[in-house]
């Protein structure tokens, strides 16, 4: 077995760093991808500052923390309800067109909210309606955006294309919150939301310029037939639903531990917002570093890399549970950001490689829905748990849950041997050599 592995490894030529860098930037030479990348980057500049603008807009019109919670929840519920429909629509119609109209809906909704804020007529329910409209549009945009990469770049460039997108997104996240605070203080929350609306409109224009060769539009007699086909494709891939189950456990625990209890920990144990801000900066720096690593490194054994990246997210929660010094906590959070960015990039490339393009958006919508459904429950349980058992004890349990989810998934053979090299031979358990035709879906 080891001899076979060495022979297989020896047959693969080594690639120099110069060639890797040129290969990493190759997708940007393709006009449709360049338009897609530019549009996403522009939209992310608005999305990075809009949360703080929205929060202060609610407070500006007299809303409370509960009102802000209602506004934020209004964006999640439509996504849960419409995500599967969005996946079907993205597979039936032009994905670029779906992305155009999704951005137009968000631009109009936020533009109307800005006008109401400028005129002093805005009420909380107006912002709830705006948030719900954008959430509904996101339910259509997300499956379309996840599937369009396979249409605009050839298979050998998809990994680099995904990594470039992740670098752009994470780089914007680094300065976004701080810039949003400055803009709100200088110009007011309505101008920040207005900027987000402008970026949505400009992105819609760029998406509309993506010229893809028109293929046959797939229509079925019944809409539910497409939903069922997407579900059958999803559940037939054991490796996929196992990893989605992992994410359904890890994502709410991470968000509850880092986003909800993290600031509480910072206030009680670190001394306030400033040191916690340093921790957040460590995470965003890790996200950028991880995306850069993924751009130059294409690992073969994706399942192991994804599980390792998932496991790294337990490090910050464990560091807080153990009351680690601030520098240690920052390093742990940066490591989690790095692992998360690498795992998300290689996972996107794997899904795009393994799932047929005509079913990609539907299958991804089931995957995304499985991850976000438990998130509200995680937020609801984290507060009472921290009151009953203490913040650090709750964080310790969260770290153990994430680590266990990462390890248990590797017990599944299809996960452990997941490979990006679908056209090459992969080594299976027990010394058996499995060909691409027999490789697990």
UniProtKB/TrEMBL annotation:
InterPro entries: MFS_trans_sf (IPR036259), TM_effector (IPR010290). It comes from the Bacteria. It is a multi-pass membrane protein. The keyword Membrane applies. It holds the Pfam family MFS_3. Keywords: Cell membrane, Membrane, Transmembrane, Transmembrane helix, Transport. The keyword Cell membrane applies. It is found in: Cell membrane. Its main location: membrane. The chain crosses the membrane at residues 41-61, 67-86, 98-118, 124-153, 174-192, 198-219, 239-261, 273-297, 304-323, 329-351, 363-382, 394-412. This is MFS transporter. It comes from Kitasatospora misakiensis.
């Amino acid at each position: 077995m080891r001899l076979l592995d060495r022979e297989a490894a020896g047959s693969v030529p080594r690639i120099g760093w110069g060639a890797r860098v040129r290969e990493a930037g190759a997708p940007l030479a393709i006009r449709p991808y360049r338009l897609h990348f530019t549009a996403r980057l522009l939209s992310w500049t608005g999305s990075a500052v809009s949360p703080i603008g929205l929060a202060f807009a609610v407070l500006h019109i007299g809303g409370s923390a509960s009102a802000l919670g209602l506004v934020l929840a209004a964006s999640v519920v439509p996504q849960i309800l419409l995500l599967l429909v969005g996946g079907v629509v993205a597979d039936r119609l032009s994905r670029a067109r779906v992305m155009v109209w999704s951005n137009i809906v968000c631009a109009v909704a936020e533009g109307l909210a800005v006008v109401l804020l400028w005129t002093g007529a805005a009420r909380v329910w107006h912002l709830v309606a705006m948030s719900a409209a954008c959430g509904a549009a996101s339910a259509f945009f997300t499956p379309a955006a996840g599937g369009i990469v396979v249409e605009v770049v050839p298979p050998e460039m998809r990994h680099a294309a995904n990594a470039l997108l992740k670098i752009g997104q994470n780089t914007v996240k680094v300065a976004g919150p701080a810039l949003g605070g400055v803009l709100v203080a200088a110009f007011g929350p309505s101008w920040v939301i207005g900027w987000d609306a402008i970026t949505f409109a400009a992105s819609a224009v760029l998406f509309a310029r993506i010229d893809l060769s028109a293929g046959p539009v797939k229509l079925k007699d019944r809409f539910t037939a497409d939903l069922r086909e997407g579900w059958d494709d999803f559940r037939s891939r054991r490796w996929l639903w196992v990893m989605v189950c992992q994410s359904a456990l890890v994502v709410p625990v991470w968000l509850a531990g880092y986003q909800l209890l993290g600031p509480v920990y910072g206030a009680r144990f670190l001394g306030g917002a400033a040191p916690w801000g340093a921790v957040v900066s460590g995470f965003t720096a890790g996200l950028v570093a991880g995306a850069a690593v993924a751009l130059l490194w294409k690992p073969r054994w994706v399942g192991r890399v994804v599980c390792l990246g998932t496991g790294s997210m337990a490090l910050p929660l464990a560091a807080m549970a153990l009351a680690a010094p601030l520098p240690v906590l920052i390093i742990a959070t940066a490591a989690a950001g790095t692992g998360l960015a690498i795992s998300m990039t290689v996972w996107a490339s794997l899904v795009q490689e393994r799932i047929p393009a005509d079913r990609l958006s539907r299958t991804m919508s089931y995957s995304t829905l499985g991850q976000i459904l438990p998130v509200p429950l995680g937020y609801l349980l984290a507060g009472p748990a921290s009151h009953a058992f203490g913040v650090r004890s709750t964080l310790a349990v969260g770290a153990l849950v994430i680590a266990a989810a990462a390890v248990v998934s590797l017990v599944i053979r299809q996960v452990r041997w997941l490979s990006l090299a679908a056209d090459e031979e992969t080594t299976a358990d027990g010394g058996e050599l499995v060909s691409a035709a027999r490789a697990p879906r």
